[in-house]
Amino acid sequence: MGTDWRLESCCGTEEILFCILFGSYAAVNLLLWRTFIIKPMKLIAVFAHEMSHATACWLTGGTVKKIEVYTNEGGVTQYTGGMRCIIIPAGYVGGAFYGGLFVALSGDRIASTVSACVLVAALLGSLCYSPNKIVVALSLGFVSLTVLFLFLDWFVFNPLIQYLTLYYGVFIGFFSVYDIYDDLITRTAEGSDAVACHELIPCCIPRCVGVQFIIVALAFQGLGVYFALLMMTSNDN
Known about the structure:
Largest sheet: 2 strands, antiparallel
Number of strands: 2
Radius of gyration: 18 Å
Number of helices: 9
Strand order of the largest sheet: 1-2
Strand content: 5-15%
Structural class: mainly alpha
């Protein structure tokens, strides 16, 4: 049977549970947004932002010197070479992309396992680029958590890794939307990626760039939900 691109066979129990979890995760994040409880998740979202800069740098032939994350929910990726016109916007756009990708891959157990392993590899790999103490703590903490969920999922009970992957995706995606809105639309934060884009390409007004980024970020979340449901309906068939 072919792929159900129109999701005509949706939604069974698994798909309904996915939608409930997606909404619940979003609601919990909103309720706890200004509490210390989800501070580690905010920092891992910042890590995704900085890793996006680093990935763009590597893909365009540059060299990454340092990756740092700070407790004020900021970060920096020091690099040389590469294409700045791609590296600069990669932070916000890349973070949103990773959020949508995690949401999409949460629709399948194998895909979730692969995404979790890639996250573990990225966290461990960041330790090779002069990390500060926050990056070290994040790496060790989230590697331990993710590996624990992988072990429990494959040897004790499933689908735990899918639930964790979905939460990573929802949080990173929503943090990207919030970060873009707060840094680029409600104000123009000095040193932000949008300001750097404006300095590089003067016709790119920071707030206009922010509006474009936020549309892309929301689109990634929507696509993530669609492809997750697509994988689940395909597996059912």
